[in-house]
Structures are given as C-alpha cells and as structure tokens.
Write a structure and sequence with these properties.
Structural class: alpha/beta
Radius of gyration: 25 Å
Strand order of the largest sheet: 4-3-2-8-20
Largest sheet: 5 strands, parallel
Bound molecules: flavin-adenine dinucleotide
Number of strands: 25
Number of helices: 14
C-alpha cells in the first residue's frame, strides 16, 4: 500500500532548480519531499553545463597549443586522446555529483524519492509507492532536447546533449542541427579537438543577441574551420554507410551534407507530459507551464520554476527562481521575477554575454538612448594576451542609467558580472567611471567605455569654461 506523506513542500525534479528549493527550505527546518525520476543534479550536472564546459576547457587547451606559434613558441599539431578527454569530462561530473546526491540531501533533512511524480488531483501527487499531500508543490521538471519533425530523422542515428558526452570515439565529421548557444559551443569545441564540423541552421546563427556581436563570434568560429549553413532547411535525413546524409535547401539550391555523426541542438521542450497537469488544473502548453511573475501556476498551491516554465533556460535562472519561491512559501513575502537583471552567456571563444536590454530592444522601449562602444583592441591586456578581437556595447538611458551591456570577447562571461550587479542595483555609468580598476585587466574595458561616455561632455566649450572657472577659484 502507498505511504502517505504530508510535507510542507513537495519539489518535483532534482535539477538545479529543485535542489536549490529543497536545500533552502530544509535549511529552515521545513519538511520537504523531493521526487527525482532520473539522475540527481539534472541536466546541468549530467548532460549540460558541466560536461559541455569541461569539453570546452579541453578544446581551449588544444587551441592554445595551435596558437603558440604567435607567441614565438614552436609546437606541432596537438594530439588529442579522445578517450582520456571524455574520462576527464566524466571525472569532473563525478567530483561535483556528491554535492547534488540523494545522500547529501537526506543528510540535510530532505526526504528524497527516486521515482516519477504525477498529479492525481489539485492537491495530491503520486509516485509508485507514495501519495504526497503537501501544503505547496514546486514543479522543477526541466526540459529535454527538441526533436525536430524532419522526414527520416526517427530512423536515423542521432545524438543529443543526453548522449553526446558518452560518445566513445571522436566523430570524423559531426553535423549539428541548430546554431543556438548549445550548437555553436559544441561546434567550436569539436572542431578544435579534431572533428570536421558542419552546422545547419534554419534561421540566423546565435540569433537571440546583438547581431553585430554575434558576427564577431561567428567569424572566429568559421575561421577555425566550422562550416555554417544559415537560412537552410533540412528536407530529409537518412542513415547511410558510415553515418547520415542530410538533404538541405537554401537560396543557392539543394545540396547534401554527409556526416559520420548527427547532433540535434534545435531547442528544448519542457518536461511536463508525465505530470498529468490537467488533473491539478495547471495551465500549460508546448512551450512550458504558465506562471505569473511570482512563478505561481494557475493552481495557487503550485509553483513552477526553471526550464519547465519555458522562459530563459539557464542554471542561474533556475537558482534565481529557487530563491523567489521559498521566500513566498515560507515567509509570505511577495517576489517577482525580473528578467532584465538576468545575464546570458554563450561560452564560445570569444564569449558572448549580455545583460539587460540590447541596443534594438532598448531603442524600441525608450526611444532615445546612447550606445557606448569600446573595442578590445584598445585595451592593453587584450593586446598583451592576443585577445584583441572583441567589442563591448553599453546601452545608456537618461542621466547615465545603465539599460544593458553586451560583450563579444575573451572573458565576456566574467566581465558581464559587473554589469549584472550594476543593473540589478540600478547603478549608472558614473559608478563605472568612478571605481579604480586594476591594470592591466580585460575588465578595464567596461571602465574605459564608461569614461568615453562622459568625454564628449568634458569637450563641450561651455563645460570647459565652467571647469576652468572652478579650477581658477578652487
Ligand atoms: C548542452 C547544454 C549546456 C548548457 N550550458 C549551460 C551553461 O553553461 N550555463 C547555464 O546557465 N545553463 C546551461 N544550460 C542550461 C541548464 O542546463 C538548464 O537551464 C538547467 O539545467 C535547468 O535546470 P532545471 O532544474 O530547471 O531542470 P533540469 O536540470 O532539467 O532538472 C529537471 C529534473 O526533473 C526530473 N523530472 C522530470 N520530470 C519528472 C517527474 N515527472 N517526476 C520526477 N522527476 C522528474 C528530471 O529527471 C531532471 O533531473 C545548458 C544546457 C545544455 C543542454
């Protein structure tokens, strides 16, 4: 007979979002049940951020060896031992896994159930052995790779992010469907470690950010040898000896792409099919579970967070959501998601990072804005380190208010932290101009850009005469 549990909070899904809620609530001594049907740690640890960034790190080493000649160091073409490289990727996952494990969460006071959860009515969830009637439920079931409707795809062998990191041999020619962040990160990494790579994209590559900055990244990736077909439809996929053949079509006509392996990176779909959301009156569609800015669903006992909501799909968004929900459940404090403070980073080389509104969105919303630009080539550290390919664009509103910042360049993912902090705290460019940045660092680029914003004012003759008078009398 099923055991009945009555916790304060039942969390469904043990990925970044669910684990953070469970840990946060348990820290306050609140009874929490966590249901996870697969691997604790979810996508980020097992099939997403962690393995992809470990692979990218390896690929960076390979590229550094190739580029050593520029620095006067003789090095031949690096030899990649793919098995050892993959072993390290899995060792990194293994090193982080205990932190997300059922054992650790049990030790924090969370009851962990390894099973699939589904709603049976508006206040009850069932698993194989348990009936859970919680005061509040938090759905954190994440997302899965989208499988596009391409004729022949179902019969052809393909990889997704869930199988890519288990591949035992380096693909001879990796064909990637989709040129979003995941597709382009993997394209560059696999090209660097020695695969031929072709990417096929129905629209524009890296289309979610600033096109001028995306162009800098795409140019670098193409220069390393990745073939990228944009605005290209895939008419069919077929299995053939030694791999797959894609029949493609674009404005130049029809052509075939033959690859040894096929990776699907064509977006994500929310995991909610198994939840029987209808039984609990929870509105949802193919894009995700519908939530308000407070992350509450159409059932007032139930919240949904992270990828399952179909919003911005990042681990730091999952963690951000996970902070807003317990605040409401435990302390009845109102909380609202603010997407303008969420940074987005694509970990290509150079990296692409953005927070707040981009140039086009800011113009649409505010009309008159200023865009401050600073090229990486004007930064000494970028020059010394051979990283001078990059650009920062800062969107500025009235009285120097920071509306957004976008960066294409080395270290963009680190540099965007300062701007995310500034935007979340409603700071202005004056704050960026006023602090002392260590020299020589790439982060100085943000400060250099901010100084340039105020420079035209200082060049104004009226301002100069006022400054002159102040100096004379001061
Ligand atoms: C290749 C790749 C690279 C990425 N890189 C980055 C990056 O560098 N930075 C970044 O911020 N983001 C990155 N992401 C995105 C990031 O991985 C996700 O945004 C994040 O994992 C979402 O967390 P989540 O908790 O919402 O969902 P998930 O991590 O997917 O966790 C959901 C969990 O719910 C479980 N579950 C589902 N249904 C049920 C059910 N009915 N009952 C019980 N359990 C259930 C699943 O098994 C899963 O473990 C990447 C994604 C991919 C695919």
């Amino acid at each position: 007979m099923a055991k009945i549990l009555n916790p304060d909070i039942c969390v469904i899904g043990g990925g970044a979002a669910g684990l953070s809620v469970a840990a946060g609530a348990a820290a306050f001594g609140v009874p929490v049940v966590l249901v996870e049907r697969g691997r604790m740690g979810g996508d980020c640890l097992n099939f997403g951020c962690v393995p992809s960034k470990a692979l990218i790190a390896a690929a960076k080493h390979v590229q550094a060896i190739r580029a050593a000649g520029e620095f006067g160091i003789a090095a031949g073409e690096p030899v990649v031992d793919y098995e050892r490289l993959q072993a390290r990727v899995h060792a990194v996952i293994g090193a982080i896994a205990p932190h997300d494990s059922a054992e650790r969460f049990e030790s924090l006071g969370v009851k962990v159930i390894a099973d699939t959860a589904r709603f049976v009515d508006d206040r009850t969830v069932a698993t194989g052995d348990h009936i859970i009637r919680a005061r509040r439920f938090v759905i954190a079931t994440g997302s899965s790779p989208a499988i596009p409707a391409i004729p022949g795809l179902a019969e052809a062998p393909y990889l997704t992010n869930e199988t890519l990191f288990d591949l035992k041999r380096l693909p001879e020619h990796l064909v990637i469907v989709g040129a979003g962040p995941v597709g382009m990160e993997m394209a560059q990494a696999y090209r660097r470690i020695g695969a031929r790579v072709t990417v096929v994209e129905a629209g524009k590559a890296l289309s979610s950010g600033d096109p001028e900055l995306a162009a800098i990244v795409l140019e670098a990736i193409r220069a390393e040898g990745t073939v990228l077909h944009e605005q290209t439809a895939i008419l069919s996929v077929e299995r053939q000896a030694g791999g797959v053949r894609l029949l493609c079509e674009n404005a130049q006509g029809r052509f075939a792409v033959d690859g040894s392996d096929l990776l699907l990176a064509a977006g994500r779909v929310p995991n909610h099919a198994s939840l029987d959301l209808g039984a609990a009156g929870i509105r949802h569609d193919a894009k995700g579970i519908a939530v308000g800015a407070d992350l509450r669903t159409s059932n007032r006992r139930v919240y949904a967070i992270g990828d399952a909501t179909g919003g911005l799909q990042f681990t730091h968004v999952a963690s951000y959501h996970a902070r807003l929900v317990p605040q409401q459940i435990l302390f009845r404090m109102p909380a609202r998601e603010d997407r303008d403070i969420v940074p987005r980073v694509t970990f290509t080389d150079p990296e692409l990072a953005q927070v707040g509104l981009g140039e086009a969105e800011a113009r649409e919303k505010f009309g008159r804005i200023d865009v401050v630009r600073w090229d990486f080539s004007a930064n000494d550290r970028a020059r010394t380190d051979g990283l001078d390919r990059g650009l920062i664009k800062i969107t500025v509103g009235r009285r120097g208010r920071l509306i957004g910042a976008a960066i294409a360049g080395a270290g963009a993912g680190e540099m965007i932290n300062g701007f995310a902090f500034a935007i979340a705290n409603r700071l202005t460019l004056k704050h960026f101009r006023g602090y002392v940045a260590p020299y020589p660092t790439l982060s100085e680029i943000g400060k250099q850009a901010s100084i340039s914003y105020y420079a035209p004012v200082a060049r104004n003759p009226l301002v100069r005469s006022v400054i002159g008078m102040l100096r004379y009398f001061g």
